[in-house]
Design goal:
about 220 residues, two-stranded antiparallel sheet, 6 helices
């Protein structure tokens, strides 16, 4: 088990470094201000520290965070009490147009299972946000970040189940999470007014980011 512990710790460090780089990128482009109102779509009470948006963002009291999972929202509220929370569906956000200075979403869109759902999610992000920052694992990165297994995303679903049953250490044996991973081309299609960049910790970008900064911020 010592080898497995080393493996998990290495993955944990890579994950933390990847998130650090994403938040550094966000800060360099968006340049947060105390008055900005921010929506976090897909809030989590994750146990890694530092790990989530609330761990990094300079003004946590200006965050409205939420998602569809009551348990996740409850954990996030206990861990990050400065933010405000709500239960909502990212494909139908209950907020007026352009009501947030920034919409942030980390690794949520790939869990929507159809092209139509992902399109609805992207439209809602762009509708309610003046600026946005949406991340997702890169389909073409050979090591899949949910399973922690190489090349599994390129296999048929039943083969994925067999592969995970034999070699998986992160997802329970035999289970296959529902994912629709995206490429840079997919992200450009979903977020046409955005810049698409890759975030790299290893030899190839593990994460893709679609971001847009409200032009009015650049004039102040």
């Amino acid at each position: 088990m010592a080898g497995e512990s080393w493996y998990k710790e290495a993955l944990r460090r890579l994950s933390r470094r990847s998130r650090q780089k994403k938040f550094e990128l966000l800060e360099s482009f968006f340049k947060p201000r105390p008055e900005d109102l921010v929506l976090d779509v897909g809030a989590s009470g994750a146990t890694f520290t530092p790990y989530t948006f609330q761990d990094y963002y300079a003004y946590p009291n200006r965050i409205v965070a939420g998602g569809i999972e009551q348990r996740e929202i409850g954990e996030a509220r206990r861990r990050y009490p400065q933010a405000r929370y709500a239960i909502f569906d990212g494909c139908g956000l209950p907020f007026p147009d352009k009501s947030f200075d920034l919409v942030f979403s980390n690794a949520v869109i790939e869990h929507l299972l159809t092209a139509r759902q992902q399109e609805c999610f992207a439209r809602e992000v762009m509708r309610v946000g003046r600026s946005w920052f949406v991340t997702t694992p890169n389909f073409w990165f050979p090591f899949e970040s949910h399973y922690h297994l190489p090349l599994i995303q390129f296999l048929p679903r039943e083969v994925q189940r067999w592969y995970n049953r034999l070699f998986g250490t992160h997802i329970p044996k035999g289970q296959v999470p529902h994912l629709r991973l995206l490429s840079a081309r997919d992200m450009r299609r979903l977020f046409p007014a955005s810049r698409i960049v890759g975030v790299r910790v290893t030899f190839w970008p593990e994460t893709l980011v679609a971001f847009h900064v409200d032009p009015s911020r650049l004039m102040t």
